[in-house]
């Protein structure tokens, strides 16, 4: 059986450890970016909801104006 060189195994393990540290840093960055994306989408959802509410109020006001002026749709 061939002799196993402990220094070679040690070098391989050091390389694996370095690679794992790099992967851990990359995953941490991806988590931060995912959180930022979630926060951004939440902000957009709130903005769209606010715009929808405002449009609903304008629609109600327009209906009232049309009724007061006795305007009807030509259907």
SSE topology:
Elements: H1 6-68
Describe the structure.
By secondary structure, the protein is mainly α. The chain is built from 1 helix and no strands. The N and C termini lie far apart (94 Å).
Short summary of the structure?
The chain is mostly helical and 75 residues long.
Name the helix and strand elements from N-terminus to C-terminus, one letter apiece: H
Shape: rod-shaped
Number of strands: 0
Q: What is the helix content?
A: over 70%
Strand content: under 5%
Keywords for this structure?
single chain, 75 residues, mainly alpha, 1 helix, 0% strand, rod-shaped
């Amino acid at each position: 059986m061939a002799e196993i060189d402990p220094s070679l195994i040690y070098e391989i393990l050091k390389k694996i450890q370095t690679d794992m540290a790099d992967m851990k840093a990359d995953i941490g960055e991806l988590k931060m970016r995912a959180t930022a994306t979630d926060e951004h989408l939440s902000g957009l959802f709130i903005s769209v909801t606010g715009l929808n509410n405002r449009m609903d109020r304008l629609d109600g006001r327009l209906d009232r104006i049309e009724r007061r002026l006795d305007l009807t749709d030509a259907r």
